[in-house]
Design goal:
Largest interface: A-B, 28 and 23 residues
Order of helices and strands of chain A: EEEEEEEEEEE
Structural class of chain A: mainly beta
Shape of chain B: globular
Distance between the termini of chain A: 37 Å
Number of strands of chain A: 11
Number of helices of chain B: 0
Order of helices and strands of chain B: EEEEEEEEEEE
Radius of gyration of chain B: 13 Å
Shape of chain A: globular
Oligomer: heterodimer
Largest sheet of chain B: 6 strands, mixed
Distance between the termini of chain B: 41 Å
Strand content of chain B: over 45%
Strand content of chain A: over 45%
Largest sheet of chain A: 7 strands, mixed
Number of strands of chain B: 11
Amino acid sequence: GAGVSQSPRYKVAKRGQDVALRCDPISGHVSLFWYQQALGQGPEFLTYFQNEAQLDKSGLPSDRFFAERPEGSVSTLKIQRTQQEDSAVYLCASSLGARGYEQYFGPGTRLTVT
Amino acid sequence: AQSVTQLGSHVSVSEGALVLLRCNYSSSVPPYLFWYVQYPNQGLQLLLKYTTGATLVKGINGFEAEFKKSETSFHLTKPSAHMSDAAEYFCAVSSNDYKLSFGAGTTVTVRA
């Protein structure tokens, strides 16, 4: 069956531009997660949705980062006024239930800010 | 708060040899522990997980890991490496129901 998909796979933005990264979770999955993976590092948690409710956004690095999941399926991670330190791979994951014991990851979006 | 330390950022093994990847964690509450594998340009794939019960956990592709509370460890092993095991491996811990904290990863190279 279809897994988690993310688009675009690669994004180059000039410093100061806004970007929007999309995540299509596995159909029917209640929970959705965003992680940021810097080069040579493990993923770091950004935010967590249960259906359309954003239950934890403690990992968002600044108020330039915003995530939404308005209908409880597709999610968008928006970064305003991008900075070079935002360059990373952004991973989306989903899990079937309210708990994230088995998170299924998408391939990620590699963001490069020049 | 929890954290994960993976000893060795790179491991090289011969085909057919034992694969051993080390993971130590810190957690203020009983943890849930995970190993993920990441192939180039792909997302992370769950290899195995420990939540409760038996401390020796078997996963996909012949991997297994043992939870040792006294050592705060969750090392990953595979008796015989295959070329297809070349990838990056991440250990992760969760002390709640959802937020994963990952180690920095270990890249495995398999020599023919």
